Amino acid sequence: MRTAVIYDDIFLKHDLPTHPENALRLKYFLKSLPEFNIPVLKPKNVSYDILRAVHFENYIEDVRISCRENAPGFFDPDTYYGEYTFDVALMAAGAVEMGVELLLSGKLRSVFCAVRPPGHHAEKGRAMGFCIFNNVAVGAVKALSLGAQRVFIVDFDAHHGNGTQHIFENTPEVFYFSTHQYPFYPGTGSTKENRSNVLNVPMKEGTGDAEFQKAYGETYRKAVKSFSPDIILVSAGYDLHRDDPLAGLEVTDSGIEYIITQILESAEELKIPVLFSLEGGYNLYALERCGRITFRKLAEFS
Ligand SMILES: [Zn+2]
């Protein structure tokens, strides 16, 4: 088996049970994992130099002090923190860093980082939208530091990954491709923001499988092939599912399976590894089904 899940129980210690982004999400997402013969690896803490290449040092320090001295609280109206949040967020970023290392050393073909808090809204100097540190951005910087020439990020979360786009829009070695509901939180992600290394494919509320099949079967496949990356990083947010309570897209289980399959097939075609990192997804039962679909596909492709 050349796939693995990276997970640690520490990811459950950042929690607010009344908030949609709570620890139960991860438990449901991983419920089906024992059905598959996929090894689970423990992450290690993120390297400070890599984290500092993504986020401002004073922001990292603000997060640390808030969690150590002022917990619990909120960084913005959506984004809570508790006494463990700093440590949990370091480990979430560290899981993605470690996944990239394992993939680029050739030990694995695919990795799923089952992490919380999510990352794609986190800006260089600001927590936002349930996100503290930008996990996928840490993975991209790590990949470049290990000699990757080009990194392709694909983000299928229902929300636009403003943080990821902003961190890399002036970095031609990193390509950001995103499908997301638009107009919608966080307000970014229109086609006007597209440039040579940013491709936003906004979707109206109510968009379902057919449009997503076009976006992943055609637009994504063409973009990733022509960029010719050394690794694909996936912001895997499952709130595009029709049962999600926060977003208004209408993607079914089979639509999600199609997207995962396209991403895995593109990695196979280009003979490059692929890392998934959990972002959103707030219906527990849909998360369980999406987890099963994802793990089955990872096992099939490994
Ligand atoms: Zn989302």
From TrEMBL:
Molecular function per GO: histone deacetylase activity
Histone deacetylase domain location: 19-295
GO BP term (any one): epigenetic regulation of gene expression
Pfam (any one): Hist_deacetyl
Protein family membership: Belongs to the histone deacetylase family.
PANTHER family, sorted: HISTONE DEACETYLASE HDAC1, HISTONE DEACETYLASE HDAC1-RELATED
Stated name of the protein: Acetoin utilization deacetylase AcuC-like enzyme
Higher taxonomy: Bacteria, Pseudomonadati, Aquificota, Aquificia, Desulfurobacteriales
